[in-house]
Amino acid sequence: MLFVIELFFMAVGAVSVILGITKYTFWEVTKPGAGFMPVLVGVLLIIISLFMIKDKKLKSEKKFEVQGMIPVGIIIAAVIGIYIVGMTFSVSFMVFGWMKFLEKSKIFKSLFVSVLTGIIIYAVFGIWLKVPLPAGVAGIL
């Protein structure tokens, strides 16, 4: 059995614990220091990884299914889309793809929710908070 993901997260947890203790202050005189949260998160990652390894040993090996990679593909496309068409359109396209291809929603519902998501993102961040969102190469919104 391969435990690649579990070992990766265990290594990330170990690095987080080591850096939290050695590089950052773990505890100041009366309060937690900057290294407290990295140590806490690192220990939790290690514990969860151990439980995942234990759980994987108890279960039989499952075959790889391409259907399970669709969310990963949609998110990767959205991240790449941020650099091309900007944050607002990229998130809208991601919501549309998620609803249409994963949730199997009807096209009108998918379009409505994705357009509404884009409008809300633009209204909250662009107009109300005046936070500049990535515009992408196209420079739209």
Automatic annotation (TrEMBL):
InterPro entries hit by this protein: DUF1468
Superkingdom assignment: Bacteria
Transmembrane segment boundaries: 7-27, 33-53, 74-99, 111-129
Segments forming domain DUF1468: 4-134
Organism: Blautia pseudococcoides
Protein's name according to its UniProt entry: DUF1468 domain-containing protein
Key words of the record: Membrane, Transmembrane, Transmembrane helix
Segments forming a coiled coil: none
